[in-house]
Amino acid sequence: MALQIQTQIQTLYSLGAAAVAALLLLSAGAARAEPGPFSALAGSWSGSGIIKKSNGTSERVRCRSAFEPAGTANLSLRLRLRCASDSYNFDLSASVAYQGGSISGSFQEATRSVVGGISGHSSGEGRQIQAVAQAPGVTSNITMTIRGNHQSVSIVTPGAEVPEVTVSLEKR
C-alpha cells in the first residue's frame, strides 16, 4: 500500500514537473514571438509626397526607405530615407534605440553633411512615432504613423530651405 501511494505521488510529481516545463516552454516561445517596438516599420517602403520650400513653392517628391529592427528583442532600429524632387533631394540615415516608450539616437543627412541627435516616443510596436531631430542650428519635428502597409511621414523644420515634407509610403 505504501509503495502504491509513493508511486502515485511520484507520478503526480512527474506530471506536475512536465506541466511546469511545458508552460515554461510555451511562455518562452510566446516571448520570442512578441513583436518588438519597431516591428510595424520593418522592411522596405516607397512612395511620394510634397515638399514645401521657404520661398512658398511646392514640389512633388519621390521617396524610398528601409527599416531594420535589430538588437536584443528588436529594441534598436536602423533606418534610411531617401527622397528626391526635380530640384531637391535628401538622404537621411539614423540609428535609434527604444527604452520604456522613449527613443533616442543619432542621424545623418548625407547631402548637407548634417549630423545630430534624435529623441522622442514610440508606441504601438512602432505604429506611432513622435520625435525631434536636432543638429547645430536646425530642429525638425518628425511624426510617423503606420496603418497596415501604409506609412505617413511628416517632417517640419522651421527656418529651413524646406520647412515641410509630407510623404506617404507603402510597404514593398
Summarize the structure.
The chain is an alpha+beta fold and 172 residues long.
Walk me through the structure.
The protein is an alpha+beta fold. It has two domains: 1-34; 43-171, Lipocalin (Beta Barrel). It is 19% helix and 55% strand. The chain has one helix spanning 2-33; strands at residues 43-52, 58-70, 76-84, 89-99, 102-109, 114-123, 128-135, 138-147, 150-156, 164-171. A hairpin with a 4-residue loop joins β5 and β6 (114-123). The longest helix is centred in the first third of the chain and has 32 residues, at 2-33. The relative contact order is 0.16.
Present the secondary structure layout:
Elements: H1 2-33, E1 43-52, E2 58-70, E3 76-84, E4 89-99, E5 102-109, E6 114-123, E7 128-135, E8 138-147, E9 150-156, E10 164-171
Antiparallel strand pairs: 1-2, 1-10, 2-3, 3-4, 4-5, 5-6, 6-7, 7-8, 8-9, 9-10
CATH level-two architecture of the largest domain = Beta Barrel
Report the order of strands and helices: HEEEEEEEEEE
- Order the strands across the largest sheet as they lie in space: 1-2-3-4-5-6-7-8-9-10
- Overall mean pLDDT: 82
In the residues, how many domains can be counted? 2
CATH topology of the largest domain, by name, is: Lipocalin
Question: What key phrases describe this protein's structure?
Answer:
10-stranded antiparallel β-barrel, globular, single chain, 10 strands, Lipocalin, 172 residues, 55% strand, alpha+beta
